[in-house]
Amino acid sequence: MTTIYLVRHAVTSHTGHKLTGWMEGVHLTPEGKQQAEATAQQLAGVNFKAIYSSPIDRTIETARTIASRHDLDVKINEQIGEVQYGEWTDRSLKSLARTKLWGTIQRWPSAVRFPEGETLREVQTRAVDAIEELRGQHTRDTICCVSHADTIKLIVAHYMGIHIDLFQRIFIGPASVSVINVSDYGPQILSLNALPMPRPVKG
User: If we measure between CA atoms, which residue out of 98, 94, 60 comes closest to residue 77?
Assistant: First the structure.
């Protein structure tokens, strides 16, 4: 059995405002760094055999913060990367919400291809294939995969047996942790969107 911790990256200046996609140079904010530290602290006692990250600045920074507690190097895995949003990259959510395609994404996401980008079906296939490949490499291990909200939602939806058209019902917050056990007898969702607990105030 493989235990997989799926961690969403912590916040950037774009989180909740823009579709960052695969843009370079978008880093964690001071708040995001605190979130990553809090998540790393909560996961410090987990016996990870490997830590994987999407090849994007914000995920790598989050993953390195976690890895620093485990004396592990971060391994890059492109297949758990963000959705390729194509022409929607770096556009505000407010402006995108006024497009016709936005309504389709909310109601029938499996039918949508982002302009010059991917379909969510393609993202789910590559991401789940990556998790299954890692499961084959870590048959009795616990691993951490740092990724993105939509990618994690699509992975979780697959292992919960939820159709892509319902994946928006799953919420994955910044720096949250979701945990899945996968064995030859099937998956178990152990935790979903668990947020790091704030550190106690001294004095």
Answer: 60
Q: Three-state SS for 165?
A: helix
Paired tokens of 94: 């407010």
For residue 87, pLDDT beyond 50 = yes
- Burial of 133-158, coded b for 16+ CB within 10 Å and e otherwise, reads ebbeebeebbbbbbbbbbbbbbbbbb
Residue 199 has pLDDT above 90, yes or no: no
Who contacts 45 (Cβ-Cβ below 8 Å, separation ≥6)? none
Of the pLDDT bands very low, low, confident and very high (cuts 50, 70, 90), residue 191 is very high
Pick the CATH number of 2-194 from 3.40.50.2300, 3.30.70.370, 3.90.1720.10, 3.40.50.1240: 3.40.50.1240
* Calpha distance 175→97 (Å, rounded): 25
> Considering the chain, what is the average pLDDT of its residues?
94
Look up residue 85 and give its amino acid.
Y
